[in-house]
Amino acid sequence: MTRSTLDRRSFLVRSAGSAALLQSLSLGGLVKASANHRLSLASIGVGGMGASDLGSLSSHPNVDVVALCDVDANNLAAAAEKHPRARKFTDFRVMFDTMGKEFDAVNVATPDHTHAAAAMTALNAGKHVYCQKPLTHDVYESRQLRLVAAKTQLVTQMGTQVHSTSPYRTAVQLVQSGVIGKIRETHSWSNKTWGYEGPAPEAAPVPESLDWNLWLGTAATRDYSKDQFHPGNWRRWVDFGCGTMGDMAIHILDPVFSALKLGAPRKIVSSSPKPPKDSFGLKNQTRYTFAASDFTTNDFVLTWNDGGLMPDSSSWPLPSVEGKKMALPDQGSMFVGEKGYILLPHVAMPKLLPQEQFADTVVEAAPNGNHYHLFVDACLGGAPTTAHFGYAGPLTEAVLLGTLANRFPHEELLWRNEAMAITNDDRANALLRRTYRSGFEVPNLS
Questions:
Q1: Which domains does the chain have, with CATH numbers?
Q2: Is residue 242 classed exposed, middle or buried when 0-12, 13-18 and 19+ CB atoms within 10 A define those classes?
Q3: pLDDT tens for each residue of 270-293
Q4: Alpha carbon 53 to chain centroid, angstroms
């Protein structure tokens, strides 16, 4: 390999790092709000990840937390201890009706089946929205949130915090620098699993602290069952969560979609075992086919594995450790390019492979960004967010199409994006949108 080739490659990667730095500075880094330029925040879902989100958003010096909402009184009490001036609510609809004119923005960190209902209620009320991942439970909901957010021009951000971290930003810039050429295929994986194959949940008394009717919200009525739904296992149930793909693919595929500027998939096929009726399979493999983008070859293929299923890495130039090929990280992605490979662990810095080929290539790390503060800064007039619903909506649609394909193993589903339709399977097409329970309808969704 010639010195000029190496110098050019180094220049491309260094330029990518400089671009990342400029992007970081424009993404809220230079916003300096005045003392009276403040954001009033209402928080929906303040336990678990919601407590973490609330802590991160309220750490911004220009945020005032004015309202807290949770269906669990214990979560509400814990949040109120940290934000004693905020008013407390159990029903977010009552919160909007009571003090909707007193806050500017909302963060949503409920179970997946309530994301869209709460986020759309906020958009309908003219509020900026930070919503946890996956953006929605259904494909239709993602499409609607994207369209309404675009129409209202409100600030939005999906809670994929790693989107703004140095490793993922660096990977995006590295791929787009062209150092490994156009990407022919990617493989992404997670060892996690959100499925259930045990006996049907047994009915149990509802805890006094929990409003079970409001927790169910848009979902069909069912009995409470201890340790099955609230607070921690709802992801494994079709009515409430989106399985492992909704939990982890939305994170791990984020830099893949961002770096390659992927559009909508054309075809999706799953080779997973058929899942239980009400839950998700314990091991999934899903393959997507896309039209070419500026950074991919034609008929680019993206493959997702979870539940311990790992991609076939026998042909990949993984470095050797003590004479044995390095094992893949438990979670991550591999970009297979025309001129090389990029391994991106979740969450660690990307690695150019083969090592000897890129030994002299300098990779400058992009700076970290505070995903939460970037949202606040955008609400206060700073630069736009990059995980806004215009980006997060299509990403979530693609991930949810994968969870849907897993319910129809070995059947290639044809996706017509403009019509929002699966054109070759009426059963799958019917699952793009669910009917909300009576009394929980939301304008622009129901």
A1: 1-26+166-367+386-446 (3.30.360.10), 27-163+373-385 (3.40.50.720)
A2: buried
A3: 999 999 999 999 999 999 999 999
A4: 14
